[in-house]
Amino acid sequence: MSMQQILDTVKTFDHVLVLSPEHGSTFPEISWGDHYFYFSPDGEIPQRTQPFATVVTKDYPDDTASRLGVDGRWRVNIHVGRDRAVTLTGTGPWAHTITDVIVPHPLYGMAGWVSVVNPAELTSASVLDLLRGAFDDQRRRLERQH
C-alpha cells in the first residue's frame, strides 16, 4: 500500500480535511511532508481537536523508535481508543521498526494510538478500516459536542 493510496482513500470521506504542510508553508518546518486528517465540515482546522490519524515521513526529535525517513520508511498513526489498541496490538513487547505490523504508537500508544510502518499486504485492509473507524469516531464526538 502506498502513502498516496491512503491519502486518496481518506480524501473520499465526507467532510474530511487532509492537511499536508509543504516546504515554504506557514506551518512549522518539521511538519512539512507529513499529513494530518480531521473531520471538518467547514473545511477549517478544528480548534482543540487532535487529528484522527496522521502520516509521518520522518523522525521527530522525541519520536525516533520507528527509524523513519530511511529508505522510504513512513508511518501511519491512527487513534483507535485504548481498549481497541490493546485488542489490536496485545501486550508487547513491540518492535517499532518492523514494517507492515500494527503496533502501539511509540509515544501515544497508552492514549489509544496505533501505528504501522509502511503498511503492505498484511495490514492494508486493516489500516483502511481503522482509518474509517477513527474518522467516524471523531465525527460522532464532534457532532455530540454541537
TrEMBL record:
InterPro entries noted in UniProt: DUF6194
Domain DUF6194: 1-145
Protein name, per record: DUF6194 domain-containing protein
Provenance organism: Microbacterium murale
